[in-house]
Amino acid sequence: MAEPTRKESTATLPGQERYVAPIDETPLQAVDSIDESAPATSMWADAWRTLRRNPMFIISAILIIFVIFVALFPGVLTKQNPNYCNLDNSLEPAKAGHPFGFDLQGCDVYTRTIYGTRTSLSVGLLSTILVVVLGAFIGALAGFFGGWVDAVLSRLTDIFLALPILLGAIVVLQMFKTSTSIWKLVLVITLFGWVSTARIARGAVMEAKNLEFNTASTALGSTPWRNLIRHIIPNSLAPIIVIGTTSLGSYIVLEATLSFLGVGLPTTTVSWGGDISSAQSVLRTNPSVLFYPSAALAITVLAFIMMGDAVKDALDPKSRTA
Q1: What's the whole-model pTM score?
Q2: Beta strands in the chain (DSSP E)
Q3: CA separation (Å) from 123 to 76, 119, 143?
Q4: How far is it, in rounded angstroms, from Cα 250 to Cα 60?
Q5: How far apart are CA 197 and CA 241, in angstroms?
Q6: Which DSSP category does 281 fall into?
Q7: Residue 266 φ then ψ, to 5°
Q8: 201 — alpha (psi -120 to 50), left (phi > 0) or beta?
Q9: CB 85 within 8 A of CB 238
Q10: How do residues 272-300 score in pLDDT, each as one tens digit?
């Protein structure tokens, strides 16, 4: 005897009938399916795909490439000697071969602006590299081992965090005024600038060490140091790269500020900060002498800030504002 066909209850008021589509007409399997033929992607590949579509990244990358080209090959853009000055040309306006005019000492402003790119960019890049390496190392140790290691390194971080970087740099540079090397300024910036990177690295490592891959690696007999170097740090690089990219522009500004105050690079070194400091005495009578190195500094810093924001959006989608 055949079983009766199951019917849906029709005990509904008029207009409240339910319609249930047949399974054949609901292609959920096609919607939820995964294209197994597509190549596997990583976080870095996804980030690069996002960056290529970001106009801010494209504009900042073009500006940064141009700035790097100027820093590496200043002789392509000018044949003048940046240290050659003639008082007969003091504050002379622009003329053929000297599009920016001359400063108070009779130096070519265009040539000094071009050659100042190398100094300011070198200080910013070297400071950023050392800050990222030192800060990531200290933060990784504190976040991975925890306990008394974390307590000691965290208190050390708090001590340096309480010191304003500009004030601390001025005090240290005043103590070593006899030294005239660019590395002096780079080391001082590193001494006071690693704190933010260390805090970011500590949080990223603490989050990464509790993930499954670290537990699996430990179960297979991997040592803690091997886990830290081979697995934890590579998976914690995204926020460290973001903080390093956004800080590079700040270190260029810091170098210019210290040189402006007379405690940074010596006057014999061509830099934007030194030229801005020298031009302040003629600001009212000849503001163009101050404008060009300031504009070069502003454009370079803006390019790195835009690059940092683009990288942050690509590596940390949760922080996007739009």
Answers
A1: 0.79
A2: none
A3: 22, 6, 29
A4: 16
A5: 9
A6: G
A7: -65, 160
A8: alpha
A9: no
A10: 988 888 888 888 888 888 899 999 999 99
